[in-house]
Write a structure and sequence with these properties.
This protein is mostly beta strands and 333 residues long. It has three helices and 27 strands.
Amino acid sequence: MYLKENLSYSGLSIDQKKVFNIDVEQLKLQIIDLENARLEKEVLLEREGPNGIGDWFIGFKVLDDSTFVLLGDNRFYKVDLGGNLKQKIGFDHLFYVQDELAKRFGHTGFKIHQNKIYNVITTFGKPEFNLLIYDFKEDVYELKEIPGSENLISSTVITYLGKSSFTYVTGFSIVDFSDDFILHNRSYPQMAVYRTNSNSIQLTNSISNFYEDVPKVDKIKEVHSVKESEDFKRDLEKGMSFLIPIWDEENQKIFRWGYKLSSINVEMDNPEYDNYLFVMDKDLNIVEEFLIPEVRIKPYRIFIVDNQIYLYHNFEDELGFIRVGLDFLKTGP
């Protein structure tokens, strides 16, 4: 089972019984039985030919129990569970003919609804993000500012190695949220919400007892070695980071998992992490928040199934899940 990316290219089936995971190295769709955490089936995807989908991806989303979408090279590929390409939607031409899109590219967060693509785009080497809304039927687009994204300077580092440079910046995820969607960045406590009816983006700022606002800085951190870059990233983990949140339609709540390096045990080889759960209402106000003292690992992905949180973990190259029941919404964890 492909766990190298920690289920970064995965999604939960609509019936909540399976996880669809992409092995980006061998280009396979893996269908995982969630209850038993075992591989049920593998489907080889084609790189070339009529059903070819290339070999470079930065995004994955489940559309329904028969179709998923991959984002790669400014193209969207709708693929069925048999590995057959059903539709290819390209918008790469925009980045060649539109001056305001020069040196920009589609990033990880996206949503497809009706004839529109919503995709977070960024600028090469800079913490600059916008929401691109592309009508692929009419071949027209608009750009929207993502409020709060300018503050990601504080979590960005440029590493200079000889004549080359590498920029580390955390990207946005797009999370379905009732009729709207959330623009989420794991490095930043605030979340932005795109409102479909008004075609607008609103920034929220939930108040918590467990974290504070990220301090604002005016200049991107610059370093000249890989060690300095890794030290910077490790320092970031001393503050709160967040997994991709989940909107739970049944409970009408948003569940957001947070984590930070523990001050008790910060061994470089095997550090421990403090883990937290934040429960939010439809207005993105925190209504309950908990420290989860039993969980001391670095988390990567959560799913919500049968009123339980399934927290993914790699147990010595074996897939596993830590389960947290949601009955604590009334009684405490």
